User: What shape does this take?
Amino acid sequence: MELEEEPFDRENCKCYEA
Assistant: This one.
């Protein structure tokens, strides 16, 4: 999973790395 500039990665970024 890479950190790309997505429209939901900003606030959901924590949900993905959690």
Q: What stands out?
A: The chain has one helix and no strands.
